[in-house]
């Protein structure tokens, strides 16, 4: 009887050691994964989410502030605010929209225009905006890019011409 208790006790002890080692290895794996990933994709996703939340609220002036400098050259702030409000709110007859963002995909050396400067590393995120308008419901699907400009994450749209 004593032998069975010792054997069972030894088995339980080994099982606990095995579980402890597995748990420590799992924590080490998670820790290394966190150290090795830069989290840049998540930061890019957060910046684009903030941009579209402002757009969703009709706050086009503050969303314009999140544009990359190349986009700000393309649109003056007052023009962007007026045109965005006019097209989406007045012409389409909608107050807001819902949106979804895809997972960020890192890309390198993209250009907003064929003759534009290369941006280096950027994250491509597809945005799907869902509208309910006086003309019916529809979706706009647009690939967007987010890259760092200085210390800030900035939004870009691509304007490549198809040949």
Keywords:
5-stranded antiparallel beta sheet; alpha+beta; 2 domains; about 160 residues; Nuclear Transport Factor 2, Chain: A; single chain; 5 helices
Shape: elongated
CATH overall fold name of the largest domain: Nuclear Transport Factor 2, Chain: A
The name of the CATH superfamily of the largest domain reads NTF2-like, domain 1
Percent range of helical residues: 40-55%
InterPro entries: NTF2-like_dom_sf
Organism: Paenibacillus terrae
Protein name: DUF4878 domain-containing protein
Could you walk me through the main structural features you see in this protein, from its secondary elements to its overall organization?
InterPro entries: NTF2-like_dom_sf (IPR032710). It comes from Paenibacillus terrae. This is DUF4878 domain-containing protein. The protein has 163 residues and is of the alpha+beta class. 48% of the residues lie in helices and 25% in strands. The protein contains five helices and five strands; from the N terminus they run αααααβββββ. It has helices at 2-36, 40-56, 60-64, 69-74, 77-91; strands at residues 98-101, 105-108, 121-133, 136-149, 152-157. Strands 1, 2, 3, 4 and 5 form a five-stranded antiparallel sheet that branches. β4 (136-149) and β5 (152-157) form a beta hairpin. The longest helix has 35 residues, at 2-36.
